[in-house]
Amino acid sequence: MHYLEKLFTLEGKTAVVIGGTGELCSHMAFGLAQAGATVVLVGRNAEKAAQRIAMIGDNAHFIEADVADRGSIKTLLDTVLARFGSVDILINGAGINAATPILDISTEEFERILNVNLTATLVACQVFAKYWLDHDLSGSIINLGSISGLGPLSRVFSYSASKAALHNLSKNLAREWADKKIRVNTLVPGFFPAEQNRSVLDESRVAAIMNHTPMDRFGSPDELIGATILLASNQAGSFITGHELIVDGGYHAMSI
C-alpha cells in the first residue's frame, strides 16, 4: 500500500479547479482533496461553492473569478500564490451548452459558447503555464473535454464544435510544453447527467444514449476521480501528456 500511496499522493500540492462549483468538477476536486491536495474551486456562485466545500472538506476553498476575463485569471493566480504559496495542478472545467439548431443560432450565441468552452481555457493555460515556465516549475493541466469532441453529437452542435477545438488545443499545448515539465491532457467524459445537458435529456435521447453505451447506464461523477488523480499526479502520470483519457462506459467503442 505504501508504494501506491507514494505513486498517487498529491500531498503538498495545490490544485485550481476552474468550474469547480459544477457537478462533475466538484467531484474531481473531491478526489484531489482526498489524495491530499489543497483544492481551490473557481466560479462565480459563492452559495453553490459553499455547498461543494461542505462536501469536499477542509482542503477546499473558493475564489471568485470570471473565467472569460484574462485580468481576472491573472488575479486568481496571484491570489492562489499569496494564500497557498504554490500551484501545481490546473483543471479547466467551465463550460456552457446550447440546443439552438444550426440555422437558428446567432453569431453572438455561438461566440459566447466558444469563448467560455475554448478561449477561456486557452487563457487560463497561458497564464498558469507562463508562471511555471518563468519559475522553472512543473505543472499538470487537465482540460475537460467531451465525447462529443471526438465525434458530432446531435442537438448540441455548437458545444461539440467547441469541445473538438479544445481537444486539438490541448494536444498543441502538450506538444509545446512537453520538454518544459508541463503536461497537458484532456479528460473525456461520456454521458454524465450534469447541469448543462439535463435540458436535452428527454426520454428518446436517453434511450438512444443507452443503445450506444455498452455499460447501459450513465456515468456517476465520482467515476471521474481515478482518471483525474492519474493525470494530476507527476508520479503516476509522469509520461502522460497530449492524451485523451476517455471515461464513457464504452460509448466511443460502439458501432452497431
From TrEMBL:
Gene3D superfamilies cross-referenced by the UniProt entry: NAD(P)-binding Rossmann-like Domain (3.40.50.720)
Stored PROSITE patterns: ADH_SHORT (PS00061)
Domain Ketoreductase: 13-180
SUPFAM superfamilies according to UniProt: NAD(P)-binding Rossmann-fold domains
Oxidoreductase in keyword set: yes
Keywords, sorted A to Z: Oxidoreductase
Domain of life of the native organism: Bacteria
GO terms for MF: oxidoreductase activity, acting on the CH-OH group of donors, NAD or NADP as acceptor
Family membership noted in the UniProt record: Belongs to the short-chain dehydrogenases/reductases (SDR) family.
Protein name, per record: SDR family oxidoreductase
Protein's organism: Luteolibacter pohnpeiensis
Lineage of the species this protein comes from: Bacteria, Pseudomonadati, Verrucomicrobiota, Verrucomicrobiia, Verrucomicrobiales
